[in-house]
Amino acid sequence: MLPCNHGLRILADSHRPERLPLSTTASLPLTKVTQQALTATVVWICIVIIYDSTHPPYPQHRLQVRCCLCAYVILTQDEVGLILRNLDGYYWLAGCLMYGSGLRLMECMRLRVMNIDFDCRAIYVIDGKGSKDRIVTLPDGLIDPLRVHLEQVKLIHDRDLGANFGSVYLPYALERKYPNAPTEWRWQYVFPAFSRSIDKRTGIERRHHLFEQSMQRSMKKAVNKAAIHKPASCHTLRHSFATHLLERGMDIRTVQEQLGHKDIRTTQIYTHVLNRGGNAVVSPLSGVSFSNKQCSEV
């Protein structure tokens, strides 16, 4: 028996939908994990119940479930360029990182100074989706702009320290373990907020990271200014990153590591949007030089 928050259940013995009383539905325990699972199910899977027209809806009727994956919105490189040209300041740099490194929105917003390794051309994503860590590439074209940006952020941090502020939030009780860490430069956010605010968890006035919704609003404005009619969002930059890597012939396992996917099948979805054959395989025959001979008749 599968309880759902819309008051329906499917009986395993008869496969017949049956309405649950409102009181029963209201008493169903929905934890945060359950709510996230239900939301993910609604977003990613469309369940279509198809009844056999030759049988009435009795216990012997068949129940078929068809799952349809939602199509990803993919931008061309020209469209990505138009969008990035319509972003300014923090938002331009954040957009370049999401597309150039395949970062999720919150992974980009939560980047700290110590997560950037200029020498190794790497970005260390700590505690990403699924509480997983990974290393992604740092585009060469962003090294100089990112250095200049961090110099400006360092000035903001120094001003906060001069005003007896400058501490940043640390997760997992690290602040108690390392009392001086919140004011250290390496723990500061790469994209700090424009103003300080009161941390509701501690009551301390501090500078948090850039509000993710402000990035989403800027992205929406940039898409409209670029006259792109696709429903593009910040996550679309990540989808486009994966697709364009596969178009360049990148190994799918490498793309999987860059995106942080646990299952290779999740990464294989991006191969379906390529205008190529199965699993976006490029035939080696394209690199062979041969004369255009006609097949001899048998």
Task: Give me the secondary-structure topology.
Elements: E1 8-10, E2 17-19, H1 22-26, H2 32-44, E3 48-50, E4 64-66, H3 77-85, H4 89-101, H5 105-109, E5 116-117, E6 122-125, E7 134-137, H6 143-162, H7 174-177, E8 197-198, E9 205-206, H8 212-225, H9 234-247, H10 252-259, H11 264-268
Please sum up the structure shown:
The chain has eleven helices and nine strands. It has 298 residues and is mostly helical.
Architecture overview:
With 298 residues, this protein is mainly alpha-helical. Helix 3 (77-85) crosses helix 8 and helix 4 (89-101) packs parallel to helix 9 (234-247). It is globular, with a radius of gyration of 25 Å. Helices cover 37% and strands 9% of the residues. The chain is built from 11 helices and 9 strands. Mean pLDDT is 79; it is low at 1-28 and 46-70. The chain has a domain at 77-275: Orthogonal Bundle (hpI Integrase, Chain A), CATH 1.10.443. This is Integron integrase IntIPac. One of its GO terms (biological process) is DNA recombination. Keywords: Cytoplasm, DNA recombination, DNA-binding. InterPro entries: DNA_brk_join_enz, Integrase-like_cat_sf, Integrase_catalytic, Integrase_integron-type, Tyrosine_recombinase_XerCD. GO terms for molecular function: DNA binding.
Strand fraction:
5-15%
The oligomerization state is single chain
- Helix fraction, binned, reads 25-40%
Could you tell me how far the N terminus lies from the C terminus, measured between alpha carbons in angstroms?
62 Å
Instruction: Please tell me the overall pLDDT.
Output: 79
Q: What top-tier CATH class of the domain at 77-275 fits best? A: Mainly Alpha
What is the topology, as strand order, of the major beta sheet? 5-6-7
Question: CATH homologous superfamily of the domain at 77-275?
Answer: Intergrase catalytic core
CATH architectural name of the domain at 77-275 = Orthogonal Bundle
Backbone CA Rg? 25 Å
Counting helices, strands and paired strands, the structural category is mainly alpha
Number of beta-strand segments: 9
Q: What general outline do the C-alpha atoms trace?
A: globular
Show unreliable segments: 1-28, 46-70
Instruction: Give me the CATH fold name of the domain at 77-275.
Output: hpI Integrase, Chain A
N-to-C series of helices and strands: EEHHEEHHHEEEHHEEHHHH
Largest sheet: 3 strands, antiparallel
Structure annotation, total helices: 11
